[in-house]
Structure to design on (549 residues):
């Protein structure tokens, strides 16, 4: 799949933002006044900024509001609802903390649950697609949620929790790669099932000599050859470096900031790979995914 | 709601004969022509005189098939032209993922359509379709797909003979058939029964309505110029398979080099 920068930025930043909102919502830490203001500025900035980035991906932005209508069937619609209601509830909770030094936990817990639900809905947009076997596995929600919780714990200064979630995130990501490499074969789609022709089938001629929306969007070839190197970079930056920094220097502010940046860079690479490595079954009609 | 109807009264769709299709792309052109001049945003082209690409609702792929050897005798490869448009699936995953309600499947005849006035151009439905039957128009920013020529098949302003999809009406080989696949007595259902119509990618669980008729087995042709059916055959038989005299000497000399 084509790794669109807007969608990668969205899922990296808003994941961390909603993670931070989760921890603020459950009162780790309970903040007020100026400190609260800074925390919520970061959290809302990441979450809302990420959401806006995803709107840039749309071909017909004026109809974006209609995406709230299909919550009964569509994960993308549910994501919109969870995000908007979650942000409103957390906005009220934050307002009371910043200006009235009042913490209403009913609001906080509701907002925290909705923040996580948003991340879960985002992950299900990908995980539900049978056409992209690499995404169609339970570990997909697993690493979206753990990435969000790890980022939230890091940003909110919950050092021990951050270390635990960073390790879980690393483990789930490695599992996702390992399982993902087998998913296409497990799904069982081949050029023979796609064409129902008997014998050894290969593409002889494409429909058109040029590219089209499908080949551009879903049959992405560039730089997959660097996948292994990028996986190592992602896991080091996303998990290993922050964990080492936090364990060795738990209270050092500059190093904590480096841990956050390293985590974000790592998640960014991991999300890029999530798209670049994903193979859509439609590629079979275009001669992609041929057996060696 | 982009929920799928539990059942549809009719299942209108296409039956595509892979034995008959000659790969002429006439249906591609007819489809693009009709659907550019009629319902919805026109099917745009980008950089038509350069690195061209554009929106099509119907595309012809061509495959080479290498049959398995028969009695250890290797078989010649065959070419199959493979038209592909929306299969109007019964369990259409493209419909349920749509957040705006723009994508829907009609309860009365099973046609899967996009309401372009509601589409926000997120492209998720194209990701959900295994067959590459949906393309986002790069000029209009909305999703385009085969409409089963819904604006022809019920169109009383057209002659009766034209009330069928443009691709079906155009096909010079008669490789595309249109009808109701829920009715066992329709000519399309009979074709499917007779020729063993097949679902594409059944493992994806989409239950396509459109059916594909597999190529018929290759004819067995008698060896050339055996028997007495052609009295000129002996005169046409190859002569002097081995070079003789001077040519033979040249041949041997060259071989030794
Ligand atoms: S072929 Fe693709 S676009 Fe058409 S109904 Fe099936 S899944 Fe949807
Ligand atoms: S591109 Fe349009 S039709 Fe397709 S899922 Fe998005 S809003 Fe629905
Ligand atoms: S039925 Fe109409 S829209 Fe569909 S492929 Fe044929 S010509 Fe195109």
């Amino acid at each position: 799949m084509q790794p669109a920068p807007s969608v990668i930025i969205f899922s990296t930043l808003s994941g961390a933002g909603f993670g931070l909102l989760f921890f603020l919502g459950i009162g780790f830490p309970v903040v007020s006044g100026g400190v609260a203001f800074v925390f919520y500025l970061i959290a809302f900035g990441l979450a809302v900024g990420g959401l806006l980035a995803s709107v840039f991906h749309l071909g017909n932005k004026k109809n974006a509001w209609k995406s709230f209508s299909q919550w009964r069937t569509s994960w993308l619609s549910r994501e919109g609802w969870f995000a908007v209601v979650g942000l409103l509830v957390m906005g009220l909770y934050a307002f009371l903390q910043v200006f009235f030094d009042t913490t209403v936990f009913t609001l906080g817990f509701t907002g925290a649950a909705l923040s996580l639900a948003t991340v879960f809905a985002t992950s299900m947009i990908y995980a539900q697609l049978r056409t992209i076997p690499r995404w169609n596995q339970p570990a997909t929600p697993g690493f979206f949620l753990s990435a969000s919780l790890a980022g939230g714990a890091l940003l909110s200064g919950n050092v021990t929790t951050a270390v635990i979630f960073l390790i879980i995130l690393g483990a789930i990501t490695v599992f996702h790669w390992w399982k993902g490499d087998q998913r296409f074969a497990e799904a069982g789609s081949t050029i023979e099932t796609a064409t129902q022709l008997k014998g050894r089938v290969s593409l002889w001629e494409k429909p058109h000599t040029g590219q089209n929306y499908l080949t551009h969007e879903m049959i992405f070839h560039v730089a997959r050859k660097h996948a292994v190197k990028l996986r190592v970079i992602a896991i080091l930056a996303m998990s290993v470096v922050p964990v080492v920094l936090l364990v060795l220097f738990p209270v050092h502010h500059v190093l904590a900031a480096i841990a956050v940046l390293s985590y974000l860079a790592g998640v960014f690479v991991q999300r890029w790979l999530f798209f670049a490595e994903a193979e859509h079954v439609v590629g079979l009609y275009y001669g992609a995914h041929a057996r060696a | 709601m982009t929920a799928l109807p539990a059942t549809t009264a009719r299942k209108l769709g296409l039956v595509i004969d892979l034995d008959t299709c000659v790969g002429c792309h006439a249906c591609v052109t007819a489809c693009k022509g009709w659907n550019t001049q009629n319902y919805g945003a026109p099917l745009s082209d980008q950089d038509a005189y350069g690195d061209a690409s554009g929106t099509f609702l119907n595309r012809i792929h061509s495959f080479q098939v290498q049959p398995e050897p028969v009695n250890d005798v290797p078989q010649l490869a065959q070419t199959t032209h493979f038209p592909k448009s929306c299969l109007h699936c019964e369990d259409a995953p493209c419909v349920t993922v749509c957040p705006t309600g723009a994508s829907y499947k009609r309860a009365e005849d099973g046609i899967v359509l996009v309401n372009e006035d509601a589409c926000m151009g997120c492209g998720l439905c194209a990701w959900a379709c295994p067959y590459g039957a949906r393309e986002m128009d790069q000029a209009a920013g909305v999703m385009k797909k085969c409409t089963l020529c819904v604006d022809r098949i019920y169109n009383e302003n057209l002659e009766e003979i034209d009330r069928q999809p443009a691709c079906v009406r155009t096909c010079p080989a008669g490789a595309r058939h249109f009808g109701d696949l829920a009715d066992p007595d329709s000519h399309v259902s009979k074709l499917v029964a007779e020729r063993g119509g097949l679902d594409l990618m059944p493992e994806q669980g989409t239950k396509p309505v459109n059916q594909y008729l597999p190529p018929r087995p290759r004819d067995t042709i008698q060896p050339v110029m055996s028997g007495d059916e052609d009295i000129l055959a002996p005169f046409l038989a190859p002569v002097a398979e081995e070079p003789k005299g001077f040519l033979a000497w040249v041949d041997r000399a060259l071989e030794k080099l």
